[in-house]
Design brief:
This protein has about 550 residues and is an alpha+beta fold. It contains 16 helices and 21 strands. The protein folds into three domains: about 240 residues, GroEL-like equatorial domain (GROEL, domain 1, Orthogonal Bundle), CATH 1.10.560.10; about 100 residues, GROEL, domain 2, CATH 3.30.260; about 140 residues, GroEL. About 45% of the residues lie in helices and about 15% in strands. It is elongated, with a radius of gyration of 30 Å.
Length: about 550
Amino acid sequence: MANREVQPIFILPENTKRTTGKDAQRMNIMAAKLVAETVRTTLGPKGMDKMIVDSVGDVIVTNDGVTILEEMNIEHPSAKMIVEVAKTQEDEVGDGTTTAVVLAGELLKKAEDLLDQEIHPTVIAKGYRLAGEKARQILNTIAENVKETDDALLKNIAITAMTGKGAESSKDLLADLVVKGVKRIITKTKEGNNMDKDDIKLEKKIGGGVEDSTLIEGIVLDKERIHSSMPKKVVNARIALIDSAVEVKNTEIDAKISITDPEKMQAFLDMEENMLKKMVDKISASGANVLFCQKGVDDTAQHFLAKKGIFACRRISKTDMEKLAKATGGNIITDLNDLSAKDLGKAGIVEETKVGDEAMTYVMKCSNPKAVTLLVRGSTEHVVDEVKRAVEDAIGDIIASLKNHKAVGGAGSPEIELSRNLLKYSESLSGREQLAVKAFAEAMEIIPRTLAENAGLDPIDVLTELRAAHDKKQKWAGINVFTGKIIDAWKHGVIEPLKIKTQAVSSAAEVAVMILRIDDVIAGSGAEGGGKMPQMPSGGMPEY
């Protein structure tokens, strides 16, 4: 039978790019590893910063993992999956984003070695799942208890979060402010303590130094009073929170008013003025001497408010209004007719103060505020932004510690303990999953290794010493990156919330498994994109 050429069958559009099998796995792993390498140098107290310049020339200087990855504008689909790990870590805890990404990159690097040994991706995935579950159990077993009353311990957790960031120079002061702020917003419920990091408002202002940052027992608004005749300072403030405009309402339907007589025109204006005066009278009758309005305040109403000696701000954001309600104990009113004395919030002082060259309104000395403000200061915009990011990490860490009342030592100690216990666990397994669990255990060592490398120390010597210390049952033996010596991380105050580690290990394991299970990448041809997908450029590294 004569050989006939087989006509190729195309089932995908013309411009579609397709990568299959080992090529697809290699490409995805390479992309993920490259993202991890990018942020790896920022890890730890001796981590370096990244400068990111966007298309319009705006500059960000930071070593916060999630900020770097979000600002980098990554395109590669697998690399985006690693960025999602950082975002999840940020949303769940607020810190540990670099740890999660570096772990994910190392797990994929170890998986690549197993793939080279002809171990099937599903076997590696199963082993990683087993190891991830066991790792969480080990972490829960070794974790220490955290009490709400242990201020020194909580302060150490906050200091650990800020060490190596832009706030390091004033970390003691900022840690004190963070601990006080978080303890202020705790609300006790039947289920236990409840706290929301959104109840701590972070307001930043350029000017002064980081050491000028303060905690205000109330709310700071980036607003000024709306009329110069209003008092600048109100003591024993009784605050009306209004979610409606102090203006004459327009009709719901289109309506025209036809005036033929000039006297009628004046009567119309007088009536409008009377309506506004009645509104102000209602506010004043409730006993309020401060008004915060979510919407607009008419110019005439401003005049009447000033005559009554009422301090007023307008166009306050919804979130700020909710924080004001929590801080002052007031109710947000949508209809002025419903306003009464029992709806008013209370504060010791409401004052307009100039910070730098801008006026801000301070609502201070609230009796039992469930929302507070941390005013962050810094000499330049880049400094104040980085300090704010560091303080956000510290707040997330304290809240995570108080929610599940558990913490672990830092300085690479929990990762070495995990690695040691996972290696023991791998010996109890039969089959090829054992190799995957062993690879998972070895991948945990990337954190202390990176800490040592970033500090200019020999990682092999450091890891050898750490393993020896943990074999002697010193579970919190970690690396002091400043001296190169092995220390007891817990005793030296290097402490992190348990949630950081459990979340980082879970997220890293899950994304590694997901990427490993991909054996076919099909980049569809869109009308605009023409099937363009980030390719493997010369040099073997993916674009991002």
